[in-house]
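Sequence in, structure out. Go.
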Amino acid sequence: MPEPAVYEVAPASLSTGEFAAAWFDDEERLWDDHRLHKPQPILAEWQAPALVLHRPERGATEVLFNPNADAVSGGVRESLAQFPEIEFLPVEIVDHGVFFLLHVVACCAPPNGCVMRTAPAPSRNILEVNAFPAGFIPQHAYFRMSQPPNSAAGRAGYCTRHIFANAEGARALNAACGSYLSAHRIGHAEQRDGQRHLLTAAMRAEQCA
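Output:
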């Protein structure tokens, strides 16, 4: 039976506070593609953009960071190719060859009992997910959540930019690119005394000790 644990994928940082992965972008440092923030597959229509490293003197890393998408090397792509939830979209990194954007196409609605921080009206977009309800079992190795239908992003068909993973997906991602991109277990929300309580992974381990 799948483990009822949820992980959030996030870039790893150095002791200096800088991202461990090299930063890629366009020349104006404004690169984005709105299609990446929707769950529909786009590989068939995708045309690889030519992008550059923010600090080319530092060279490329196996994972590249951008606020709007992460890109991985061909080797990392092979390690994660078993997961149909990820669409690998090629990008040309000038002087460093082809990398692949991680476009997660699996998406689900926020489950009842999910603890989230949302923007005030009229936006109502999900800004942060703090916890999933206790007992929630992800149906996909990697997934995102659809924005609420009454939110600005939801009406436009967008999903969250956060990528979540189940235990299997987290293990594979940490093994493939844990030095640059890692999956950390997030808390569960439990209902006690008529109120919802946030239970982090550390608190759960302490209770079971």
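Check: The helical segments are 74-80, 152-155, 167-177, 201-208. The chain has two domains: 11-104, 107-208.
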